[in-house]
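Researcher: Here's a chain I'd like modeled. Treat it as a single chain, no partners, no ligands.
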Amino acid sequence: MRARILAIFLILLLGLGGVAAKLFSIQIQHGDRLTERATKQYHRLVPLVSRRGTISDRAGRELAVSLRVSSVFAQPGAIANPAVLLNTRRMQRMRKVRMRPPVLDFL
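Model: Modeled as a single isolated chain. Structure tokens:
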């Protein structure tokens, strides 16, 4: 009975050692390479081609057309100093023509 318990303990200890060795290999030996690979998978440009057709009424007049426009988004928590963004030259020009800045609507 005692030999059986010792054998099970040694098998479990050996298995735990194998898991620890694999974790060491992934985290310490290959950590930088795997981090870079994960970043490349996470950050990528995805071209969005969502061109739709023109919508017209029964007389053939265009009611809605597709226009190509730029789109920008921001994560408010990632902007360290929003006041610096508000004082850029482009923002000052937008204020002169009384346009509301579309990018910084969250501020």
